From TrEMBL:
InterPro entries: Glyas_Bleomycin-R_OHBP_Dase. It comes from the Bacteria. The lineage of its organism: Bacteria, Bacillati, Bacillota, Bacilli, Bacillales. It comes from Exiguobacterium antarcticum. This is VOC domain-containing protein.
Length: 206
């Protein structure tokens, strides 16, 4: 199940505020202060630390079956997408990735596959990465890449069609549009601070 995407951005606070207005809740903030990684999780808010010198490594936000993360970067960079899988699915997917010659990075918490399309794919087996399987869902991502063949690659990697990922051409990999299910009618079509078109579709479940 597609559930996640991650970006680097110079607009960390603005991005958090944008998704907060769409009903997402902050579940984690980790930032580097004076050379040390420190937690700034809720109930702390930006008023508590805005004027401190903090470089946020990750801000995590959840809504239903959707998980979004972002961290501070000098420019906007699309980093990875994530699929929630079983352990058995993770194992066979990694075998297919290795057959394709792609680099795999794995630890106890997350597994990443480096694709030749300018972004990574995360395989997540822990259900606490989302609030609820039955909640709002990440229905579709549109990814622009400089290399053709992404749809076929995903089909080969996951051994199924992947209609939840659509593609277009660009000079560099970037996330252009996301579609959520939900009942936020007042936010049916907006653009986040990173130029991503955010579409909300009511009453749709995958």
């Amino acid at each position: 199940m597609l559930f996640h995407y991650h970006m680097w951005t110079p607009f960390v606070e603005e991005t958090e505020r944008f998704y907060e207005q769409l009903g997402f809740q902050v579940t984690q903030r980790i930032g580097k202060q004076d050379g040390v990684f420190t937690s700034f999780d809720p109930p702390l808010d930006w008023e508590d630390f805005r004027h401190q010198q903090i470089l946020f490594r990750i801000v995590e936000m959840k809504r239903g079956a959707i998980n979004i993360t972002f961290g501070h970067g000098k420019k906007i960079i699309f980093d990875h997408i994530g699929f929630l899988v079983t352990e058995a699915e993770r194992v066979v997917t990694l075998q297919r990735a290795e057959t394709l010659g792609w680099t795999v990075q794995a630890n106890e918490r997350r597994t990443f596959i480096q694709t030749p399309y300018g972004f990574r794919i995360e395989l997540q087996t822990h259900l606490d990465a989302i609030e609820s399987r039955s909640g709002d869902q990440l229905l579709q991502l549109e990814i622009a890449t400089p290399k053709s063949g992404l749809a076929a690659m995903l089909h080969q990697l996951l051994e199924r069609p992947v209609p939840e990922i659509t593609t277009s051409a660009a000079e560099r990999a970037r996330l252009t549009q996301v579609t959520f299910s939900g009942n936020h009618a007042d936010a049916a079509h907006q653009q986040d601070p990173n130029g991503v078109e955010v579409v909300t579709v009511s009453g749709v479940q995958r």
